Amino acid sequence: MRKGRFLDEADLETIAIGAAILGTGGGGNPYIGRLRARELPRQGLKMEVLSFSDLQDDDVVYEVGGIGAPVVGIEKFEHGDECLRALRAVEHQTGRHATALISSEIGGSNALEPLITAAQAGLPVIDGDGMGRAFPEVQMSTFMIYGIPGTPAALADDKGNSVVLASTRDVYWLERLARQATVEMGAAAGMALAPMSGSQVRETAVPGTLTLARQLGEAVLEARAQRRDPVGRVTELLGGVRLFEGKVTDVERRLERGFTRGQVRVSGLGDFQGESVKIDLQNENLVVWKGDEVVASVPDLIILLDLESGEPITTEVLRFGFRVAVLGVPAHPKLKTERALQVVGPAAFGYSHAFVPLPDIGVNRSTTASKEAADVLDSR
């Protein structure tokens, strides 16, 4: 028998904080996602999380999430059932009904979107995702990197429109056509992709990321309550490095082809006084530059936290005067293979520099996340 864990409002708060940390600036606004999610338990709907050990080989698992520009998400609220309607459209196309859902990415509100959709549909959510972070484009998931087709896929908007992409030439065409449809829908939509078996999910997904997000959120809240350094606690828990500290002195941000693109400049404070860095954006933080030198780069995680509170700062709310810590965190190993780097490495974003991975400092996030996820879920 499956042994899941049911979430409450406190879990949703910590998951929202942790998912915004893992989202590297993207994935949608976590606060809005939490507000939407918390209403469902109040209506008597349940949010159940299953570990990888609960998956059966013949499970039918659908990947769901929001698609569009994060900056739009704080200006144009969702109707609330976009991903559910997209899921139903793909189920109708395939004739296969879902037994569980999984997140496309663990970032921001997209970590909460499958929980919302699953509660509406009466389904559980798998404790994992397809990125271990957030990426801006559909094909940039471990599911597709390792051979799972994305189609049939469907999109649904707040106006009642649904679009089914029955098949595409490849996953890049899926991104192009889905992005164009999203732009016409107002640069924000819900999306569901082709079903996977339980065994395919175990082979390709990044495990334990919902639990890791919750643990990160708990660590931030605990550090604040104890008047300790939440930035240091997050850095320790993720096995990352504090790349820079400073004040945001300039933000250039624009909506382009369904993405939020731009650059942020940060002038150093404390030990970094007199130095500066710039960070490139495409929904998420892509590259940290110090002059012409690359300090950190995709697929490794580049995370901006408020220096005092440890609150994650997403790209759509960044503005002049914020005092931030810039963290670098090693990406999951599934994102650093030669095959994966062709899809999520610097060249995939148009950069000419080679990917140089960050060193693993302290905790190995990739193994700890999955082990702690299993331990925590089993203990509940």
Tell me what the structure shows.
This protein is 33% helix and 26% strand. It is of the alpha+beta class and 380 residues long. The chain folds into two domains: 5-209, CV3147-like fold, CATH 3.40.1610.10; 229-369, CV3147-like (Beta Barrel). Strands 1, 2, 3, 4, 5, 6, 7, 8, 9 and 10 form a ten-stranded mixed sheet that branches. The protein has a seven-stranded antiparallel sheet with strand order 15-14-13-12-11-17-16. Strand 12 and strand 13 (276-282) form a beta hairpin.
Please give a handful of descriptors for the protein shown.
380 residues; alpha+beta; CV3147-like fold; CV3147-like; ten-stranded mixed beta sheet; 17 strands; 26% strand; globular; disordered C terminus
